[in-house]
């Protein structure tokens, strides 16, 4: 067979997917996989849903594509209205895009243009966390804190200030409140040294995804960052590309914390794997200022096309009809209990953390010292391969803590039922037993 012309990743050839239904996928050899990570934390409603297909077909029959500056479309207006309502009108303006990177990129540019329009053009830098992941386009990469991704492009991305966020696992010996205070003080000192008047915005994931293995930010931390933004006159951009649209059990993760952003980027779960659609949600006055200055100098061809927005509407409609957020709470609880039971059995499980149906499992060589496995052992890849052999997809990543470390995410579709949650845990346990024999 000729080698594939695709070059997505180094490593062994992948099986070819045949079909999918619910939380299961099959490859062309007939092997079945439980989708324990919703693809890339995107297929939030599972696969092969008739209601989403029907809504998409109905829209295709009406009109698939119109350009956003030539026509308004009913699905775009309705989806924008729906998103605004889900924020309880705290964010009242919506700009559609097609991916998470585009959503972050658009939020960065909107924030910058706001300050140019407001007579503060000296605001030229963002503050973000190390580790973090905000996307692969150059602007989003500029605020991403993960050295291997940054390195080849460091000279051509406008570097943001990267500060450490709270890490309750690795600073668990300290009092949590004291840890948050110390991290916030460090952040303030970095900004004061750089000049607060040069900062456009903070960019944060309210719950880390692949970047940190579902590391949670703390309410006190987010309140502290919000207060710093207000004091220094800069904006707070939350990257909810992964956490938005129900993943953590709230429509948006910030709603758990009671800290409202000025701008919010979302994508993945909005199209639920059926069609690419993302959005930037903004405070109304920010958009009004930019529009009064001549309009937002930004846009993408496929942004807000009717098919994308009809898909997003069908996704949210299904979630509301089926009370999916209640399911996230119930299944999230079962998953948490199951993962914690596995942690108690295997000493190399250092930490289990998460919220809703976003769970991270961090692997360590030594649970007492929390020392990671040597990087060259690629343990994150090994456990993922074993899970795959056992018919379970999980989302692996070398922990982006700037040193080393391994973790994987367990993020099944938000519609997973109790029986499939139990089956997920059984398959994971089988993979972990095999992993245990290799590392102990
Ligand atoms: N931001 C976060 C928090 C993400 O998890 C991702 C993707 O994993 C992105 C941005 C980039 O999204 P996309 O891959 O759709 O460009």
UniProtKB/TrEMBL annotation:
<keyword id="KW-0032">Aminotransferase</keyword>
<dbReference type="InterPro" id="IPR049704">
    <property type="entry name" value="Aminotrans_3_PPA_site"/>
</dbReference>
<dbReference type="Pfam" id="PF00202">
    <property type="entry name" value="Aminotran_3"/>
</dbReference>
<dbReference type="InterPro" id="IPR005814">
    <property type="entry name" value="Aminotrans_3"/>
</dbReference>
<keyword id="KW-0663">Pyridoxal phosphate</keyword>
<dbReference type="InterPro" id="IPR015422">
    <property type="entry name" value="PyrdxlP-dep_Trfase_small"/>
</dbReference>
<dbReference type="InterPro" id="IPR015424">
    <property type="entry name" value="PyrdxlP-dep_Trfase"/>
</dbReference>
<keyword id="KW-0808">Transferase</keyword>
<comment type="similarity">
    <text>Belongs to the class-III pyridoxal-phosphate-dependent aminotransferase family.</text>
</comment>
<protein>
    <submittedName>
        <fullName>Aspartate aminotransferase family protein</fullName>
    </submittedName>
</protein>
<dbReference type="GO" id="GO:0030170">
    <property type="term" value="F:pyridoxal phosphate binding"/>
</dbReference>
<dbReference type="InterPro" id="IPR015421">
    <property type="entry name" value="PyrdxlP-dep_Trfase_major"/>
</dbReference>
<dbReference type="GO" id="GO:0008483">
    <property type="term" value="F:transaminase activity"/>
</dbReference>
């Amino acid at each position: 067979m000729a080698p594939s012309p695709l070059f997505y990743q180094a490593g062994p050839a992948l099986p070819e997917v045949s079909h999918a239904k619910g939380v299961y996928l099959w490859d062309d050899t007939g092997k079945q996989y439980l989708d324990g990570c919703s693809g890339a934390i995107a297929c939030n409603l599972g696969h092969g849903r008739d209601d989403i297909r029907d809504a998409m077909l109905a829209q295709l029959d009406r009109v698939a594509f119109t350009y956003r500056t030539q026509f308004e479309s009913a699905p775009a207006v309705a989806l924008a209205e729906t998103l605004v309502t889900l924020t309880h009108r705290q964010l009242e303006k919506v700009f559609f895009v097609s991916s998470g990177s585009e959503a972050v990129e658009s939020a960065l540019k909107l924030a910058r243009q706001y300050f140019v329009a407001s007579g503060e053009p000296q605001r030229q830098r963002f503050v973000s966390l190390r580790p973090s992941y905000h996307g692969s386009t150059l602007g989003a990469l500029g605020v991403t804190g993960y050295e291997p991704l940054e390195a080849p492009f460091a000279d051509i991305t406008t570097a943001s200030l990267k500060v450490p966020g709270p890490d309750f696992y690795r600073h668990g010996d300290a009092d949590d409140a004291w840890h948050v205070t110390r991290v916030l003080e460090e952040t303030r000192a970095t900004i004061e040294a750089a000049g607060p008047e040069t900062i456009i915005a903070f960019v944060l994931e309210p719950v880390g995804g692949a970047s940190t293995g579902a590391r949670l930010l703390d309410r006190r931390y987010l309140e502290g960052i919000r207060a710093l933004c207000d004091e220094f006159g800069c904006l707070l951009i939350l990257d909810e590309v992964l956490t938005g649209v129900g993943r953590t059990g709230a429509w948006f993760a910030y709603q758990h914390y009671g800290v409202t952003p000025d701008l919010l980027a979302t994508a993945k779960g909005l199209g639920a794997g059926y069609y690419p659609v993302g959005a930037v949600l903004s405070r109304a006055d920010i958009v009004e200022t930019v529009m009064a200055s001549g309009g937002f100098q930004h846009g993408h061809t496929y942004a807000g096309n009717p098919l994308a927005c009809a898909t997003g509407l069908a996704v949210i409609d299904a979630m509301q009809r089926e009370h999916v957020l209640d399911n996230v709470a119930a299944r999230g609880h079962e998953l948490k209990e199951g993962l914690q039971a596995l942690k108690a059995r295997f000493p190399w499980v250092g930490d289990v953390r998460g919220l809703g149906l976003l769970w991270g499992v961090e692997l360590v060589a030594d649970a007492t010292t929390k020392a990671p496995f040597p990087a060259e052992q690629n343990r994150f890849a090994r456990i993922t391969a074993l899970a795959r052999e056992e018919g379970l997809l999980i989302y692996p990543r070398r922990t982006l803590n700037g040193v080393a470390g391994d973790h994987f995410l367990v993020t099944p579709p938000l519609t997973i039922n109790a029986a499939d949650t139990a089956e997920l845990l059984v398959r994971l346990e089988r993979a972990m037993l095999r992993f245990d024999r290799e590392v102990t």
